[in-house]
Hints:
Elements: E1 13-16, E2 21-26, E3 38-41, E4 46-47, E5 50-51, E6 58-59, H1 63-69, E7 76-79, E8 88-90, E9 99-100, E10 104-109, H2 116-122, H3 126-136, H4 146-151, E11 153-156, H5 159-201, E12 209-212, H6 213-216, E13 217-219, H7 229-232, E14 235-237, E15 253-254, H8 255-258, E16 265-267, E17 272-275, E18 284-285, E19 291-293, E20 297-302, H9 309-317, H10 319-329, H11 339-343, E21 346-349, H12 352-394
Parallel strand pairs: 3-9, 14-19
Antiparallel strand pairs: 1-11, 2-10, 3-6, 4-5, 7-8, 7-10, 12-21, 13-20, 14-15, 16-19, 17-18, 17-20
Helix pairs in contact: 5-12
Amino acid sequence: MEQVLYKLPDGWEWHSVKKLSHNIQYGHTAKAESNGNAKFLRITDIQDGKIDWQGVPTVSLEKKEISKYALNDDDLIFARSGATAGKSILIKNAPKDAVFASYLIRIVPNKKDIIPEYLSYFFLTPAYWEVVGQNAAGAAQPNINGTKLSEFIVPVAPQGEQKRIVEKLDALLNRIDTAIEHLQESVTLADALLKSSLSSMLTKQEHWDKVRLNDVCQITSKLCDPREEEYLDMFHIGGANITSFSGELIGLKTAREEKLISGKFPFDNSMVLYSKIRPYLMKVARPSISGICSADIYPLTPDNQKMNRDFLFYLLLSDLFTQYAIEGSSRAGMPKVNRKHLFNFEFFLPPIDEQKSICESLDTLVEKTNEVSKELTGKLAYLAGLKASILESAFKGQL
């Protein structure tokens, strides 16, 4: 795993993770259960750099297995695969007999050579993540293994300097993390207020008619071949191209650029696009262009004599529909909303003129909320950049 090395301050040295560790170990392979004799830490139990031990399931193990996989203070735990591959957490105050699962890797730092907190901070640096990203590029499933981890080269300061750096990083990054947490709460609040307003404006009135989606809407069902000349230069939309709630389209490429070969649905600007499958379940867009979309997206065409396209867009974003969709998609495998369940959705539909008025009010509200969200997102990006810059400076001896 190639890393770009740089000149270190006097007294610093480059050392591999292998040299700085007593042990690099994979976790135990088993299924979690509710009444085991040991807490069983999994990738999904590590959220935002924290572990809620109350929510961690258990596993049944013999004493020798518990001893082999037991988590101790100052162990470093890494996610091996998936979207969080490479992310780590320093274990502190784990429950007695807590063990870790097979999709995690444990590193036990050698405290004679390195302070665990110092090593833990290294695994947050841009330099570390750049190498992880290079390794994951082109892989169907991002991953990192024990061998790759052991080969990482760490800039190691003298012990006294390590202690000073850890104390400085603790103080600076705690302030930044607190600010980030508050901003994230503000983003969540803005979205919640918008959803609340949406629910209020779609609340049943006496003169509204009860209908099923099938009564006022159709789904395009005929797939096209994106390799045909008429589609090659059309933009292709997948779930990842649709931003949550606002429905803005981002990062679009043509069928030619993406070299698509599988069937796609054609769409135009009279339709609403609804992503029917996780991880993009319930993303909704009202495109201003014609193009082609993933077969995992429903292109919905409202009957314009009965339903305004914008009203359909907001209806599919409402808590009323979202809850219905989740209940219908909660099954094993890859949860999705099937056509029958979608069309059976019942709701109260205002007259067409009233739909237009409701949508105009919601458009204004969405625009204002998006402005606030973009401002908050910009501040979050600045703080994330500041945090990365501080970490980079720390491991170059410039903090």
